[in-house]
Amino acid sequence: MRLGGALAVSCLLGPAAAFAQGPAASPSPPPSRSEYVEVVATRMPEDPEEVPATIDVVRGEELSDRRASDLHEALALLTGVDVAPGGDNGPAASVPEFWGLKEFDAFLLVVDGVPWGGAFNPALATLSVDDVQRIEVLRGPAPVMYGATSFVGVIHVVRRDPGDRAGALRLTGGSYGSAGGVATVGLPRGLGLDSRLSADLTRERYSDDRTGFNRGHLLWRGGRALGGGRLRLDLDGTWLDQDPASPTPREGTTLSSRVPVDENHNPDGAFLNERRFFVASGYDHGLGRAEWTTTLSFTHSSQDVFRGFLADLDQAAFNARGQRGTIGENHIYVDTHLSWAAAPTWKLVAGADHMHAEADGRGTDFDYFAPLDGRVASVVPEPTVFDKHIADRREFSGLYTFAEWNPAAAWRVQAGLRLNRTQERRGEEEGGAESAAEAAGREREDVRLSGSAGVMWTAWQRGSERLRLFARYNDAFKPAAIDFNFAEEEAEGGERVLEPETARSVEAGIKSVLAGGRLDLELSAFLMKFHNLVVAQAVAGLPSLANAGSERFRGIEAEASWRLADNLRGRMAYSLHDARFTDYLTEFDGVPTQLSGKRLEMSARHMGAAGVLYSPPRGLVAAAELRLVGSRYLDKRDTARAPGYSELSASLGWRAKKWEARIDGRNLGDRRDPVSESELGDAQYYRLSARRVELSLMKRF
């Protein structure tokens, strides 16, 4: 509590982490508050300070100044958000936490208005944070605008506009043989078309010499005036080859001492590869006093999997289980909506969207032997006969409307309602016969409402200084996730469709701007009641997914950011989370156990962050960041408690008019604490990546 109390007080009194300049634009003074815009909550540009919700906006210039290369680094200083690097989806992926719930599928990832991952799981491994204009982060559900796919938070990545003419070239090299390059450029204008091209190539390696990834990414964005409106077109391709890491198993209340920190129990030549192609088009057009916006996208991805996990630490032979398979996914997303903001006292958005997603996986599982020390890879022949089939088809549709009313200058009222229709069909083993009950268990259709309402009151204002109070209510709904795991107990014939997750939440808080507009303070509290949370559990020794009764999430979150000078900024953040089961009866070793009152595993009560950034247009550039994560339980019965840890990062560089050179260090304390739990390996945990140092050279043009 001493750490939590000290950070809470500091968050309301002082500064910390900072924001500044970017890879594709020459440095300039920090923006005023009015230049921060968000669209994730309302689909209309608004100042986050004026929306009755907890929203943070991280600008692209800041990401470049802090040299953030992934979500873990990009969101490190935000309140109530913890992004664990790596995970079951490979070292290029991550596992975000919002409101005390750490699940890679419990939040929504959006890129330029399109759900990134469709109706399945967020495609975190293929996300690039290069050439980004801003990242908008909404804590809490967005049940109106994105409906059945947003639950405890939304991360919206907005990439640079095609008309941006600035460009940059950056080369990097670092620990364990890592290297990479990023190029961004505004292309010459032709045929009335503005366009922009960005490309990056990354070779990332880790302290475990059998863990890493190679990734190539190419993005072209185009736009032009057409028929009185604006036509948009995006082409995006990602090539990703990953050598997966292994999570560390737990024995009793601690991580196993028989397994070294950088162990790797995957078979020799293990891989987790993906190819992803994305195309999107859109058209924006004025219709009288309204704006009509339509977006259509198509995504195809293919994954190739050969990997394994320890299954029994005491067995002398065949102590590991592996899987080999391929997974193909197709997604189609369409949204069309009208937005009116003609009168100064009201705004209205009305629209419809549909998401079609289908996936087909074919594979098999196998047993093999893996030495506990993980230093020598086991040579395992790749299976060539795929005897398991996992197929899933989802249709998510919605009709939504949102209204904002300003009855007086000091008041803002928002409310929205959405009619959801979700339909899912889980596939069966080819050629297999099934009963009517079995078929019904793999089909589900739901039609239900979700919505939100919020109010904000400006209690005091003097010039650029102000104090606002806000409150918000959300009613959210989300179909259960599917885990494409060929080692699951019910993989053959396709597992049954679980009950959808539902949640009702309330939040309230204070937003203030003081010190002549240089100091921003926010304090908020939330309470969410959750039903049918999807959790990983072991069935007959094999991993599986199940619904987990009901849970309660509550907490307090606070943040302070201070513009100390034009080139010096600071930020501090603190959160107190309490995530507990309220009714969940399950079995451990055949014994029925009620988990009511137990804290959710991997959910830390206390989290904090502090940072400062000095980023002038010329000369010395420096940054320092400190993340603090409190103790958390590794198991559902709250018997295995992991101590808290800190993560320190720092940067130092020199900036000229066109050139910049710098050195960046991550996790300088070399902490290797458990940060996320595997859903594929039973009672196994991924660790924080080892200390890393990176050198980079950038040229702007």
Summary of the model, kept short:
The chain has 701 residues and is mainly β.
Describe this structure in words.
This protein is mainly beta. The chain has one domain (2-15, 160-700): Maltoporin, Chain A, CATH 2.40.170. The protein has 4 helices and 40 strands. The protein has a 22-stranded antiparallel β-barrel. Strand 32 (606-614) and strand 33 (619-629) form a beta hairpin. The longest helix has 12 residues, at 2-13. It is globular.
Overview features:
5-stranded mixed β-sheet, 701 residues, single chain, 40 strands, mainly beta, Maltoporin, Chain A
Distance between the termini: 50 Å
| Percent of residues in helices | under 10%
Report strand %: over 45%
The tally of helices reads 4
Structural class designation: mainly beta
Total domains: 1
Unreliable runs: 1-34, 490-494
Please tell me how large the radius of gyration is: 25 Å
Q: What characterizes the major β-sheet? A: 22 strands, antiparallel, barrel
> What is the typical, i.e. mean, pLDDT?
88
Strand tally? 40
What is the 3D form?
globular
CATH-scheme architecture: Beta Barrel
Looking at CATH, the homologous superfamily is TonB-dependent receptor, beta-barrel domain
What is the highest CATH level, the class? Answer: Mainly Beta
- As for the CATH topology, it is Maltoporin, Chain A
